[in-house]
Amino acid sequence: MAITRNLKNAIIAFLVPLPSFLFYLSFLNNYHSSLTTHPNNSPSFCSTLWTWCYHHPLLLANALFFFNVNVLFWVIGQIQSSHWIIDPYWTVIPVMLVHYYATHPLAKYDWWRSKIVILLTWVWSVRLTHNYFRRERWQWGAREDWRFSEMSHQYGKHWWWVSFFAVYVSQQVFLIGLSLPLYVVHSVNKPLSIWDLVAIIVCLSGIVIAYFADTQLHEFKSRNNKLKQLGKPVVPVLDHGLWYYSRRPNYLGEQLWWWGLVIFAWSLGHGWTFVGAMVNTLCLAYVTKLVEDRMLKEESRAHAFRLYQKTTSVWIPWFKSSPPGVKNKNA
Hints:
Layout: H1 2-15, H2 18-35, H3 45-55, H4 57-80, H5 86-90, H6 93-103, H7 111-135, H8 146-155, H9 159-178, H10 180-185, H11 194-229, H12 249-267, H13 274-296, H14 299-311
Helix pairs in contact: 2-3, 4-9, 6-7, 7-11, 8-9, 9-13, 11-12, 12-13
Pfam families: DUF1295 (PF06966)
Transmembrane segments: 7-27, 58-77, 84-102, 159-185, 192-213, 256-287
Keywords: Membrane, Transmembrane, Transmembrane helix
């Protein structure tokens, strides 16, 4: 049964982006004719549509996202009673967007910067995709995000329509907003500068930190699962490796990745694209609170985690501090 479900969800995941792919390929194959329509001929609906797609690349990206992700994914979620599919696509949509921006007829860019950003986006995506499937034990759609499950209980019979906005429309705001620097990179043609090197270092630092943080978290959970199976007490808190210096190094790494992309856009004169990364940072701050509140509700680890909170920095790695009430031995 589980194998059948896994195969079915894998097929669904590979088929769902086809509408966007087919539409965009049709646009690339037909926009030339729509731009050369004879003045005496009345433009057809298709030629008008291709002309609009040509002149509005960012609006087209949003339209494809709305119909293909928001609507189609939501319908699938209603049929399956699970909104799992948006999670793996978090790792894929930025890759689709960067190639879309690079291949749009109006694209203009520095070749080296484009290739660097595309490569970095692929590296980020591969890391995040690997972490997702490793966490899900290499299964497609075995479960949905725990936050969606909690919201479904919270909204009850209204969840079927609330989910459209809470799960999908919100993702459009995040993913399109966060990917704005990818659009800027492919709409401004300026030679590379020292700021591109800074952006590369920040992006790579984010990817590396997130990889090691997620790997340490995965190993910690795996060890605890083995201890449970042996009937032994589990370790309540992960406080070694990067987690010794920060309570959420994985979130730190993810933020550095997106802020690195902002530096690319800022160096091209479009610093306003920081809005997407800022919203993401605020969202992760809220998610951090949700995660930590959830951990404090677990009696077996509440005491240890409170001590961990008092001695360890939230995001920015820093040295341990002494818990309140404990005097410094060197004083």
